[in-house]
Amino acid sequence: MNLIDLNCDLGESYGVYKIGNDKEILKHITSANIACGYHAGDHNVMMETVKLAKKYHVRIGAHPGFPDLAGFGRREMNISPTEIYNLILYQIGALAAICQAQGVALVHVKPHGALYNMAASSRLIADAIAQAVADYDRRFILFGLSGSELIQAGKEKGLLTASEVFADRTYQPNGTLTSRNEQNSMIHDVKVAAQRMIRMVKEGKVTATDGTDIDICVDTICVHGDEPAALDFSKELKEALVNENIEIRKSW
Predict the structure, then answer these.
(1) Which CATH superfamily is domain 3-248 in?
(2) CA angle in degrees (0–180, nearest 5) for 97-112-220
(3) Backbone angles phi and psi of 163, in degrees to 5
(4) 35: closest CA among 95, 119, 115, 118?
(5) Which contacts of 233-238 are long-range, i.e. CB under 8 A and separated by 24 or more positions?
(6) pLDDT by residue for the chain (252 residues), tens digit each?
(7) How far apart are CA 85 and CA 104, in angstroms?
(8) Please, are residues 13 and 45 in contact by the beta-carbon 8 Å criterion?
(9) Rounded alpha-carbon distances, angstroms, from residue 103 to 7, 44, 51, 106
């Protein structure tokens, strides 16, 4: 029996600016990656999202990113590993305080956007993130791109890791995600996405943009909460997995 976690990046509204349909999406996922105020989110949004996750019994994770509200954390920044370590700790701590006040557990950490992608290939950045997570709480699960340096760094720090794949993104032949600057980076057809996910889970394979098959490990599947079709993706993907006797993971 395959056990799969279904996660979504949430809590990305800011002030009067609303992004995503968090309340409805939370009804269809098992893990929520909540923005911690640097790339998106703020103290009010973080509190509201934690409360919603608690209501719908969804596991909560910190989603720290670069300090880049204007670019939504999707622009690379030239920041030292020491500063990356510090900003990861800072953001985890902020969300952990809100979780503590609400009486819920913070379960995992998943870097966001450009930081996530850079950690996939840079061992220095991956080590800084993994060390920050380990120093804060070694019980946390570290989410990272399947086959990435971040997953390897987490394992070497003694952390439990979750290899992540994406329902709505395409892959390069080396296993990295296609840059959002490319027209073919996103998958908008939910049926196509669902079939790709089923193959990833059952066969451990995904077809890259050049048509070649690459090996992939799947512990958790991500749908981006800021995408217009995120709710439909979450619902239909979950239904497709269940129809294939792929069990949605209830605990780690």
Answers:
(1) Glycoside hydrolase/deacetylase (3.20.20.370)
(2) 90
(3) -75, 125
(4) 95
(5) 233/167, 233/168, 233/190, 233/193, 234/6, 234/8, 234/25, 234/28, 234/29, 235/28, 236/190, 236/191, 236/194, 237/6, 237/167, 237/190, 237/193, 237/194, 237/197, 238/6, 238/28, 238/29
(6) 678 999 999 999 999 999 988 999 999 999 999 999 999 999 999 999 999 999 999 999 999 999 999 999 999 999 999 999 999 999 999 999 999 999 999 999 999 999 999 999 999 999 999 999 999 999 999 999 999 999 999 999 999 999 999 988 999 999 999 988 888 898 888 889 889 999 999 999 999 999 999 999 999 999 876 666 778 778 888 888 889 989 888 777
(7) 25
(8) yes
(9) 21, 17, 10, 10
Whole-prediction pTM: 0.94
Please give the single-letter amino acid code of residue 1: M
- Residue reference for tokens 């987490």: 154
How far lies 12's CA from each of 36, 73, 83, in Å? 9, 11, 23
Q: How far apart are CA 217 and CA 105, in angstroms?
A: 26
Cβ pair 128, 79 in contact under 8 A: no
